[in-house]
Amino acid sequence: MAFPSSNRGQWAGRQQIGYLMQQGVDYPNCLSLAAGLVDYDTFPADLVLQATQKILTDPAQARASLQYGTTPGSLELRRQLLKHLAKLDGVSQESEAGSIDQLLITTGSQQFLDLVSQAVLNPGDICLVTAPSYFVYLSTLEGIGVELVSVDCDDQGIIPASLQETLERLEQAGKLPLVKMLYLVSYFDNPRGITMPLNRRQEVLEILERWSAKQYLYLLEDAAYRELWFEEPPPQSIYSLDQSKERVIYTQTFSKSLSPGLRTGFGLLPKALVKPVTDLKSIHDFGSPHFSQFVVSELLSSGQYEQHVKKLRESYREKSQVMWNAVSDSILTSDLAHAEQPGGGLYVWLKLDDKVCDTRFSQRLFRDAAEKHHVMFVPGELFYSDPSHPDANLTMRLSYGVQTQQKLKEGIERLANAIAEVRK
Amino acid sequence: MAFPSSNRGQWAGRQQIGYLMQQGVDYPNCLSLAAGLVDYDTFPADLVLQATQKILTDPAQARASLQYGTTPGSLELRRQLLKHLAKLDGVSQESEAGSIDQLLITTGSQQFLDLVSQAVLNPGDICLVTAPSYFVYLSTLEGIGVELVSVDCDDQGIIPASLQETLERLEQAGKLPLVKMLYLVSYFDNPRGITMPLNRRQEVLEILERWSAKQYLYLLEDAAYRELWFEEPPPQSIYSLDQSKERVIYTQTFSKSLSPGLRTGFGLLPKALVKPVTDLKSIHDFGSPHFSQFVVSELLSSGQYEQHVKKLRESYREKSQVMWNAVSDSILTSDLAHAEQPGGGLYVWLKLDDKVCDTRFSQRLFRDAAEKHHVMFVPGELFYSDPSHPDANLTMRLSYGVQTQQKLKEGIERLANAIAEVRK
């Protein structure tokens, strides 16, 4: 007899990150510009140590942090997060969020993305995504059996006219009732490092509001990289622009700005989603680790988090500049190579307008780069839900997150050599 | 327009624990014998502090613990867990598990239960459960849209003849192809505190093996309370009896034996389930908090966990005796009241063979106990997937986990008074 297995289990298997991680295993000597990990040298071990000492030597805090929490998470941390978010958005805390009940703490923002998707989308439903888009979330949606429809982007993020056209096209095809959500990374996005300007944020929100008469769409705003800006703070969130507080679902994480090992993220929910998302989280795990929540809470309230993020911005700003200089000097010298200098986040998105330099896993450039030049990038194909998108074969994501400045220079030099050799 | 929402989100809403927790909120002055929380006084704050200091002052460990881990979890902790489990089962590590790849670390054992259920069961499939059974898992199954079919129990756990009859009945109804799994709490179960003896474990396994020719059923063994024995260690796991290692799925947690706030559990998977369950976990959260895993790993390897569990056993043994004495003296004096003294775990399961004493939320006993006598129990109805089960109205679960010895005596006295008053 066959072993029992579910559709969900099979759908979840369509994860391209598995293939990417396997490449890392297959080519262990590669200098990886692929991994989206964060900088080891900036981990706040001393701050986390101070926080744990403070928590565990205070009997009341020690007991509470080691006990079960509630499913939505520590009330104290949730209070601080509302305050923190209002500060980031430059608005008053009262105008920012409906109530603390709408804020849920999760195991990284990934769990929040998964829970929301499960609460909103049935198998066969449609979610709009950008082309390109964060590939792990594309897999998350596929894991629920959701159909992905992509909307084009330019250097300001999603193109409003393309969103409008896509919705019209879906309406004509009779598929509008299946469209439930639009997903956006609104700050220094993954993979392109682009931040949507304020007017673009407003336009997108207005389009969704106009379509509401026919079909209500949620906007899922992923702000994972929001605090990693280099020169100036980015615009306020789409969430803060949503007067109704019934449209935008917002999520952010401490994985990039503090420590992924604490796995603490959070999100804000429209009222209609509070119960189903919290119910699903109860089933998933009854709540994320309470102890980590106390550590994050302590670092936020002491102001040490804010100090840490300042240092982090400086470190990533320098590293991004090192990578950018190297890419400019050795790759962008060709008219066939294009990139935008990132203003924050962890990535440089490179386009090689050159059919010889097909960036896919299966093609010569990726293999030669890994095998001969010992350098690895993430092929652009991973970020497109539609593999026939014209940019899917021409693009790659380069991360300056984990490598040192020296290694970044060396990595880009190796990549430039690999490109030059393929072009010969 | 209606806000979009999924079936999953609605199914997840059928959680009776929400109702139970609401009762706790509605009657805040109650002495709760309901909560399944663990003893605050035995939390190992000093041990966790030592472990975090050791981890965070070692640069290599500090970096690793604060970085992302892999989806299945820390390799070092997984190695130790295999060793730990072989020791509990009294077998060699080689014979115990296929490979370390089959061990997955999760956010408590609840996440493991949820992931396995999602990987094995489609909406409309059937899972066999015991009557009574752990009610949070019943909600988990309902949250996936699964049909529950219950199998009767006696004081040695699930009754083999009843399992056989249930399978025959399902076969006659043409529903056998939908039956995918049997769920059991094999040690000091929730709610009854019963441990299955060895021969019962073998019989159940043999029945499932005989039925394999017609329908392959997994056995999901939940060993959450395994280490909380009082007088002598309980028998080896059903997992260890499964020679094929393709039948039994095993899970255990550190929430009861160490700290729920670390939210660290684990499970062992048959080979066929490793990929789908790990894929689903990647979508859920990419892996449970790495930092907590390092803490648990440090406490296991130093032997401090073992020392701590010894103390914990003694504390719960004493508290269970206090509750048992109080129940014996004030409630079991009636011929219409029955209970078994627990040999481990956190619960006393009380049956009142007396129609006047209907234990349901909606009936007088629960309301009077809460409102007049300020004591709360968990009505037995929560633990039966079939509300028409003859014991569903007659039973209640009493926990000695969280209250002090003094409060336990007081709580049982109040409950005895409430029962006496209803009987008047």
UniProtKB/TrEMBL annotation, chains A, B:
Keywords: Aminotransferase, Pyridoxal phosphate, Transferase. CDD domains: AAT_like (cd00609). It comes from the Bacteria. Its EC number is 2.6.1.39. GO terms for molecular function: 2-aminoadipate transaminase activity; pyridoxal phosphate binding. Residues 29-415 form the Aminotransferase class I/classII large domain. One of its GO terms (biological process) is alpha-amino acid metabolic process. It comes from Rubinisphaera italica. SUPFAM superfamilies: PLP-dependent transferases. The keyword Transferase applies. InterPro entries: Aminotransferase_I/II_large, Class-I_PLP-dep_aminotransf, PyrdxlP-dep_Trfase, PyrdxlP-dep_Trfase_major, PyrdxlP-dep_Trfase_small. The lineage of its organism: Bacteria, Pseudomonadati, Planctomycetota, Planctomycetia, Planctomycetales. Its cofactor is pyridoxal 5'-phosphate. This is 2-aminoadipate transaminase.
